[in-house]
Amino acid sequence: MPVWLEQWNRRLAKWLWWVVLIGVLGSLPVAYARVQTEHSANKVEIIVDYKDILTIAATQADPKAFAQEQLKKLKDAGVNGMAVFESNLDELSLTGDVTVYTAQQAAQLVGELSAPGDNRTYVMFNKPDTEPAIKPIVEDAFNQAGVSVESWSAKGRDGIILGIGPDDAKLRPMEPNPLSMQAIHDAGLMVVPRISDRTQPYNAARVSDWLAKFKAVGATRIIFDGEAVTGYNNQADQRSLDDFAKQLKEGGFGTAVIENLKAPQLGMGALAQKLGYDAVRLHSVSEGEMMAISPETLKDRLVLAVKDRNIRMIYLNAAPARDDKKAVVTHPIDKTIVTALSGDDGAIERMRDFGFVTGEAHAFKVHKAPAETVWRGLAIAGAVSLIAIMIGLFLPPLLLPVTILGFIGGAGVLALDSSLLTQALALFVAIAAPTVSVVTLVRLLRARRNRPENFRMSAGRRLGSAILLYIRTAILSVIAIPFVIALLNDITYELVLQQFRGVSLLHLAPIALVALYVFFYGSANGFWGNIRQLLVMPIKVFWVIAGVFILAAGYYYLTRTGNGGSASGIEMKLRTFLETTFHVRPRFKEFAMGHPLMLLGLFLSLRYPKWPLVLIVAATIGQLSMVDTFAHIHTPAVLSATRDLLGLGIGFLIGLVLIVVWQVLERLWAVWRKQLAMK
């Protein structure tokens, strides 16, 4: 590279660092607005599936009295709502309002034989006082489905005959049971309707009638059942989703986004947008989990969901189970739900310690920074500059053209406001910061090679220098955090209607780039010379074994990224200890791996010029993880910052222990070698 170009690039790099600093300052108002948004809703709604209560009650001697008793018990424990599904004949049978018969069973009621080939469904209304409320919703549901409905009676009770087989009839959805909703309302609990898009075609008048009934019992938020929101399947020909959203908005209804589904519910993103994002995140504990989970584990899980993931609705299932050993039917209401929620150390009290109270869940009130477009523009400029600096470290001649193209692209990101382009920029700057931080650290350590006095420092001076470099490296790595926050400051990310993509690349790229720089840059051979030397190098068994080990470690590392990774039993106990002690759990890869290795590597690099750089490469894990923590937009920013600081602090202490151990081993080794030489 010509001398003049090298000098120009150095001046340009200095100016780019000033732009990075301005970008960081410009990101702060946007970051503050996000914090305000995250503190705008602190009420948590804890709901139980009402159908599960009915199912448990059906196993008792007096189902109605049992159901009423459980509603009171759950309310006293802190549950403040009940989810009511679309009804069906099975559920109406559980409440005792109807009995469903086959043709043969119906004939036996009156001592007759059923007609050959009769496979219709016979429905008997058991309670004269509930028949006026139940009969219309049954008839309406089957009339809507095009099923014939005929009058029928037996033993002095009224009923109807449905022109459909019993198995099919029991599955057909109908309006949520108005009597169940009224019973929940009368018990002082919130009604949370859970409806689907199974009834086809979409009927605007029917939806309007349902919503009016929901409103009458105080319902304010709808949860959806099944793979799609109501109105999704007929949107193309009926604009049904538009109509449904309009009716919800006019009625003052919001919705809930269920986390950790195998696939997001179809139409949820569009519906939430049409509702002005009047939506909250919902965490569900399934029936199977509820039967196996301990009260302590459930308690921890609920508290973590609320404070760590911005959950504002908790959905608990409570199905009965047969215990063949004890020959009884069991359920988790008393031993699990009530125990986990209530008491001085219960989940509700612990949530209160973090500033959350039980009540009707409200959506976040979205705050925007004044002149946010201007601040966002500065953040984009800073992000582009940091990415250009990273590229310039590896390809110095390209710094100027990359900078020019980067600013043109950044202007496009700001003008187009494309989520895909914004995410790409956020990903690249998240990769750039830890990469630049560690690469410049490596350059600094290499510059000290030419000054032998640096390698004659006392252990105390080396430790002091290592601590300063430890802090400096962490500060440079987290420069990306304000940019990530400013670029992804949108309620859709907090509701996980959109997710930050590229997490695996973020976990690999900085490590790979730092390793590339350490092993192929900085020597007299130059980059291409080192490549040629590597290609002609004889392969030894040791290198094959080392390569396999590195690949295995890399695979395990990638499986631990994201939410799908699993942790060992020891790590889970350590997590629980940290959560209990600090109330915020730092990330394991930071405090137990990355940060201790960084401090140890820095300490050793100030004495040994080359091989400790391998530790610096591995320690890049901790630097990128600090940035990645803030890529989880559904986690409150203040909590993420606390997590990073704790990781740095605990990792620093572990690093000090490693340094002490190294010093002891080094002295023992020196004594042993001296004794060996004397022999």
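^ that was protein a. below is b, sequence first then the tokens
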Amino acid sequence: MKKDKKQKAKMPFRMNLLFLAVFLLFSLLVVRLGVIQIVYGDDYVSELERTENVTVNTSVPRGKMYDRYGKVIVDNVPLNAITYTRYSGTTAKEMLETAEELNKLIKIDTKRVTDQDKKDFWLLKHPEEALEMLSDKEKELKPKEQYKLQISRVKEEDIEKIIGEDLKILAIFREFNSGMSLTPQIVKNKEVTKEEYARVSEHLDTLPGVEITTDWNRTYAFDETLQTVLGKVSSSDEGLPADQIDYYLARDYKRNDRVGKSYLEKQYEDVLQGQKAKVKNITHKGKVVETEVISEGERGKDLLLTIDMELQLAAEEILEKELLAKKRGGANRYLDRAFVVLMDPNTGEVLTMAGKQYVVDKKTGKSSVKDFALGNISTSYTVGSSVKGATILTGYQAGALYPGQVINDQRMNIKGLDKGSYASFGNINDLSALQKSSNVYMFKTAIALGGGHYIPGQKTGMDTEKAFSIMRNSFASFGLGVRTGIDLPNETAGIKGSEIKVPGKAMDFAIGQYDTFTPMQLAQYVSTIANGGNRMKPHLVKEIHNPINDSKSLGPVYQQIQPTVLNRLDMKDEWIKRVQTGFRMVMQPGGTGYANFSKADFQPAGKTGTAQAFYDGPNRIKGTEPEPTMNLSLVGYAPYNNPEVAFAVVVPWAYQRHQDHSMNKEIGYQVMDKYFELKKERQKADDKASDKEKK
């Protein structure tokens, strides 16, 4: 009994103690709520009502490209587009809900969805099952480590079930998730129908982050013409090139921005890109409640190129015609390309930069001719006698030769070497040596440059390293063997032969049969002779213009590209004029170019070239010695007494053995004839327009 009484006595005490504890806890809670309500109430209300101003940049179309006469070459075609912008605080679940709603309004391509995407999607859709994949110990790991384990444990049969509508939702969600925060991400910009565009527009209030806009795509008015030189632009899927992300991010680009990937598009990225439109989105509780345009943006500036597109098309047609003609019947099996460059020798403006390549599809066996304009700066070849003008001038400059010097052109018998011209010309001077393309004259000049002498049957005694040094340094002043400086990336300087201690190689160099040069280098070289000694920097952009809304006109000039003299030949004017005379004689009776240019009424001057070479092209059989072949070249300008256009033609691997042809000269004559034909037509049109104005 006493024990029961004691227990009954303890019960009220414990109950009272419990009630006291509950009372104290409620008191603390009330006090805390009071503090929150009275002291911090306004702060919390402000936080709930707080809005954020988020500025978003949207892309604008790139600048256009025009030819020198205002014809559009590269333009933009507008595309309806649907974008998504992920704001700070947006959860994956919210993005998924928006993707589900958007899927009801548009059709989406699911080809880009990967198995990894499907696994991520499955984990998102099945959070409880995903958690059960982890042991209690694994749940203590860092989220990244947990995620790796969960991904590895998603079963193939689970992701195989993601088909139909789920797959489409995933494709949309994938695009949502691939964009950077606060950066508009293209969800769809190809084949967006008017109906889709309208439906999305009507439901924007239920699609947080989704917007409708106008995107753009590059379009080329002349199809493949010059495309290898014009370059390419990354797609909205590609964004910034992986190897240049840091470079562009440091310049305020976003990861999904479209940029020039190659050549002119890349070289002039800064002006073609334009100024992005800026839109301020006012968000509340993570949702956009108001949008304000800060800046409309401005599309990129336009480029007026130096290219004459009508002449370019004509040159390409000539190249293609000649290539196919020489390939007919299976002849000239290694011949697969040809190049021609036309340049204003006084300004460096490139009027035409044409290249064509004959290709055969290995699967179908069908042949075609494709654009290879880029080969004018990216490939180099031994070009033969067309460089002899530089050899003669080098001889004058170094004192190894004097104007009018007579040399006996007979086959040379040097100890261990037998070398000569294609014919023995007897006693000839420097002008005749250029006119007839004497090799012996150049051989003996090279020997003299090395301090040697020719005595039949004996060694020359020349310092070949000295001869190479003098010739290469001099040739570089014309633009041969060095980069021309053209406003395009990835220009090659050519290939230098390494056997500089062999006398025969130095002699070969003097006739253009050792080092390799690009067609653009040849054009720069002959322009330097044509204009009297200034090595002009070639360029493809003539002017940069501010954009205007009129799609048919150019805006005001933003910048003019001025002619740039890279260097002046350290040579007497009379020496250069003498070589000019020799070049003129090449195109006159007795000259190597006369047969093809005899009917020309534009007064040409120039130099032909044939080089013994070895085939090292795409059809060479691996592991075999390269077969001997012949390269053809031609340089020139017109009119000879007041040059306004210079040209260079290169036809690598033109023929083998006795399949001789003059494709280089045929191309050169036709292209130059077309240039002056177009000039006359334009002059007549200008005169006609002038007469109308007067009336």
